[in-house]
Amino acid sequence: MADLNGVRRGGAGTDRGQLLLVGALSLAVLFVALALLLNTAIYTGNLATREAGIGGTEAVEYVSASQDGGIAAIESVNRRNASSHATLYTALRETMAAWDDTAAHHRAVNGDAADVDVVGTTNGTRIRQRDANRNFSSVGGAPDWTVVDGAMGIRSIRFEVDAARLKTGPTNSFRMDVSSADGTRSLSLYNNSTDDPRALIDGPAGTATCPAGSAPGGTFVVDVANGSVGGASCPALTRLDDTSGTVTVEYADGDVAGGRYSIVVNGTSSSLSLPGLASPGTGDPDWTDAVYAASIRVSYRTPQMEYTTTVEVVPA
Predict the structure, then answer these.
(1) Where are the domains of the chain?
(2) Bigger pLDDT: 150 or 25?
(3) Which among 27, 43, 101, 175 is most buried, taking Cβ atoms within 10 Å?
(4) Residue 147 class from Cβ within 10 Å (0-12 exposed, 13-18 middle, 19+ buried)?
């Protein structure tokens, strides 16, 4: 249909087409805007995750380093102090404070703040023989005797053994028995036919024999914590302190071995039976107060994160 001037009108169909076109363009602009917003949100989220992950990794690393520092501090104060548990606790707090000052200063260079505090300890007892020329009998000279009874755990077992004192062959050789709810595990020390030291480990998991790697000056070290005999690897040795419940330690044939030794047990002297040991400083072997374990609170702060946790520190 044409108007009076001869121009043909499009009618309602043309109007609807124009509206649809405008609507489609509007939707396209809206979708593009939404896509830009979504991409921005995803990028921001990924960036924040990466930043938090980096901070989290540093915090975890600091907690691990603090635990290592705590282990070294416990071992140090147990070696340097032979007094009361209160004195040991104070010494441990001071040692960890010194470690914390150094470690925190290093972290501060990166703009991070870190802090470590000793918040508690588990009191223990250290059993020791310091005279390298003495055999492994009790303070009264008994070759078969109970070293400790009633302990709630045992760790840090270490012998410095005079190889020349050992008997040839495993029969009736020196033996240490560690008994708990998990059964009895034994360590026997002897020389073979060519006078080379051997360690025999026996228990629920089976039997293993480990030769000493070396014995400089005729002395070799049996270190249960790192599973070694005279510096040579002996993985079976680490089973010796795998205990549960109350623990009893006994020596048999202590007159056919000699040297130094040290053991740390979970329990105070008043809660333990120590029939073959002298009081601190009055004889050899004797017992002293010790720190068995400690709880430390570690805090780590960055501009993006604040992390605090309490962890248990127990030397091997």
Answers:
(1) 131-283
(2) 150
(3) 175
(4) buried
